[in-house]
Amino acid sequence: MVDLKKEVYDVTIMGSGPAGLTAALYTARADLEPVLFEGPQPGGQLTITTDVENYPGFPEGVMGPELMDRMRAQATRFGMENHISLIEDVDTSQRPFNITLDDGTEFKSHTLIVASGARARLLGIDGEDELMGHGVSTCATCDGYFFRDDELVIVGGGDSAMEEATFLTKFASKVTVIHRRDELRASAIMAQRAFDDPKVEFLWDSEVVEILGSKEGGVTGVRVINNNTGEIKPMDCQGVFIAIGHIPNTSIFQGKLEMNDEGYITTKADSSHTSVDGIFAVGDVQDFEYRQAITAAGSGCKGAIDAERYLERLHTESK
Ligand code: NAP
After folding, report:
1. What's the CA gap between 176 and 278, in Å, rounded?
2. In what order do the strands lie in the sheet with 151-155?
3. Whose CA is nearest to atom 43 of ligand 1?
């Protein structure tokens, strides 16, 4: 059983990426003694990237795992209690909420800040896991800068793939979009922008079946199947960006919190309030648009302030 310090918490935080740890920092500094459950990937998506050069305050850049260790240390300094455990169930019909962990431990909390993030959908092909962060990336904004004058492949046919392809031409000498059909899913305007870019080429009806290279030398190419003919051909490139969508980590809230069709938690106008009073959603679990460490951290701050105000109201009303 997890050794919890309290039976009833004011603030419980689910997730330990920039959103969750910022929410913890702010609620800890407000003397709310938050408890945070790190989830299956302690530190979140940044722990699978290498250099982070776009987080303000680090002029020389910072390694993703180090940035997360620093955020954790900062929140701990102000009294965050954290556990490497998973929240398995939240009973929203009770007040305070009843929360169950994966080992069966149960406790209560007046508020819950959901910061469980999203994960990039992956292809599940050879070379993908091994070369992630070594030439394979799921975030052009984060990693594009490292591919100056390189030839890149981007997989996907949606708005993300179009946006990332256009963005990557700032650095790359050529970007080939590989799409499994002969028609894009992307909106017309985003598609047109990519079509108009002389550095972007399209390979239709095709799928990447293997990524070639090594951790030491990075990506050297891909093997691509033509879905019409079944022919597999090698193709040289120095980087592969996978942009086939994200999957928000919201399965335990199905039927409990309002979500959009893709499973992102819906929040009320420019706040972190969800459809259940006392539950707040921050970071990538509710944001399919920006998905940056800094926007997630900002969102975590908003969640903490929203939770603090909610608790003030709750405790005033119960007096
Ligand atoms: P998406 O719209 O779901 O598109 C995913 C693309 O990846 C599709 O073209 C899909 O192919 C392809 N795909 C999925 N699984 C695949 C696989 N296993 N192998 C090969 N290809 C695969 O995802 P998204 O582009 O990330 O966009 C998500 C949402 O964010 C959308 O609502 C989008 O409009 C929005 N968004 C907006 C902006 C913006 O407005 N600036 C920017 C980015 C994203 P099929 O087409 O064949 O299914």
Report:
1. 46
2. 136-137, 239-242, 151-155, 174-178, 200-203
3. 160
- Residues 11-68 have pLDDT tens digits of 999 999 999 999 999 999 999 999 999 999 899 988 866 678 889 999 999 998 999 9
Catalytic residue numbers, as ranges: 139, 142-143
Closest approach atom of ligand 1 to CA 207: 20
Q: Which mutation among 163, 185, 189 tests ligand 1's pocket best, with the greatest number of atoms within 8 A of CB?
A: 185
With a 6 Å cutoff on the Cβ, whether 166 touches ligand 1 is no
CATH topology of domain 136-242: FAD/NAD(P)-binding domain (3.50.50)
CA distances from 86 to 13, 63, 100, 216 (A): 11, 25, 9, 34
Centroid of ligand 1 to alpha carbon of 243 (angstroms): 7
185 alpha carbon – ligand 1 mean position (Å): 7
* Of the candidates 62, 24, 59, 31, the residue with the CA atom closest to the CA atom of residue 46: 62
* CATH topology identical between 8-119+246-318 and 136-242: yes
The predicted-structure confidence for 99-114, as pLDDT tens digits, reads as follows: 999 999 999 999 999 9
Query: What predicted TM-score, i.e. pTM, was given to this entire model?
Result: 0.79
Q: Domain 8-119+246-318 classified CATH 3.40.50.360? A: no
What string of DSSP letters covers 242-295? E-S-EEES-GGGTTTS-B-TTSPBP--TTS-B-SSTTEEE-GGGS-SS---HHH
In this structure, the number of other CB atoms found within 10 A of the CB of residue 199 comes to: 18
Structural tokens at position 267: 């929040």
- For residue 259, the one-letter residue type is M
Regarding the beta carbon of 248 and ligand 1, being less than 6 Å apart is answered no
> Distance between CA atoms of 136 and 223, rounded to whole angstroms?
14
Domain ranges of the chain: 8-119+246-318, 136-242
